[in-house]
Amino acid sequence: MSVTIKDVAKKAGVSIASVSRVINDSKPVSPELRERILNVIEQTGYKPNAMARGLKIKASGLIGLITPDIENGTFAELVKGIEEVIEENSMNLIVSNSKGEVEKELKALHIFKEQQIDGIIFSGVKFTEKHKKYFERYQVPTVVVSQKFPGSGLPSVTIDNIEAAYQAVKYLIDKNHKNIAVIHGPLYDRSSGEERLIGYQKALKEAGISITKEYITQGDFTIKSGYQAMEKIIKNSVKMPTAVFAASDRMAIGALDACLDNGYIVPEDISIMGFDDIELAEIVRPKLTTMSIDHSRLGKKVIEILLDRIKNNNENDRAYELDFHLVERGSVKKLN
Fold first, then answer.
1. Which CATH number fits domain 5-48: 3.40.50.1820, 1.10.1040.10, 1.10.260.40, 1.10.3720.10?
2. Domains in the chain: boundaries
3. Distance from C-alpha of 90 to C-alpha of 55, rounded to nearest angstrom
């Protein structure tokens, strides 16, 4: 395994920022500290990341992140990946929780401008005309994460949500389920809401399974909304579904809880499939079968693209898609 900047910092008994300052010669350090760090680099054979070495840090050294839900279980992993790269560049992250509200996002963007932020990671769910005018006027290097905003001129990093949802539902179909319900996210959320619903519909259509209106419900990615959506399915269904695909693990966990409260055992009576593979998916009982996304890797990729955009004034609007995979646990049963 290659030596990392964290290894060097630990061996030298200093902070990662101090090691980065010596590598990039970005800020002064004492001669004794510099010599100690350089000795450790030589001993360990550490080779600094080319981007970290070549990036010219702007005055603020700040990166702004706007997220619609700071409490989402995937957020911590995303930030973990972002910070891992940021620390190598002696930069700092400022986070704004917009709760998906456009006005809060615009306010955060203007605060970022006042702080002379070097770049922005935007994880909003909407891209309005006001957003467009802001980015056209101020030209702040920006990368979108977990969404695609065609026509925005901004690069994005996400996954193919339609394909991922399609594969999740096809997995249930392959387990001989035909009565499959869905708890989707808000449809204004194109990636996690609309596209995952499209993937569900695509899988059913391909298998020749008719779509049952009572099986389609909406949540807002919270455990509570998953619980309420599942209760609605139980109440309104003429025939109970044998499986439920929830567009997030938290909604799947809420659905599981609602099933138990209504006398249904998972997976003996009903199977439940999640999406995201958050930490809680392995803690609940039964453990949750889900589509896994490496949110830490997502964070690394988005910050690498942003730093390249800052350094090289790269203005491509390419949409980058990362891999995903299915994780089988105990919440899905194969029917005879």
1. 1.10.260.40
2. 5-48, 62-159+295-324, 161-293
3. 10
- 21 CB-near residues (< 8 Å, 6+ apart): 27, 28, 29, 90
Is residue 212 a contact partner of residue 276, using CB atoms and an 8 Å limit? no
Structure confidence at residue 73 (pLDDT): 72
Q: For residues 15 and 278, what is the distance between their CA atoms, to the nearest angstrom? A: 30
> Could you tell me the two tokens for 27?
């800020």
Tell me how far apart the alpha carbons of residues 192 and 185 are, in angstroms, rounded to a whole number. 6
Q: From CA 307, how far away is CA 118, in angstroms rounded? A: 9
Q: Contact 246/183 with Cβ under 8 angstroms?
A: yes
Model pLDDT, residue 54: 47
CATH superfamily of 62-159+295-324: Response regulator (3.40.50.2300)
Nearest to 69 by CA among 305, 250, 197: 250
The per-residue pLDDT for 26 is: 60
CATH classification of 161-293 is 3.40.50.2300, yes or no? yes
Number of helices (H), then strands (E), belonging to the chain: the values are 12, 12
pTM of the model as a whole? 0.80
Q: CA-CA distance, 333 to 336, in Å (whole number)? A: 10
What is the structure's pLDDT at 33? Answer: 86
Residue 138 is predicted with a pLDDT of 84
Query: Please, are residues 24 and 58 in contact by the beta-carbon 8 Å criterion?
Result: no
- Written as one string, the DSSP assignment of 3-36 is --HHHHHHHHTS-HHHHHHHHHT-S---HHHHHH
Does the CA dihedral 173-175-177-183 come out positive or negative? negative
Low-confidence ranges of the chain (pLDDT < 70): 1, 24-27, 48-59
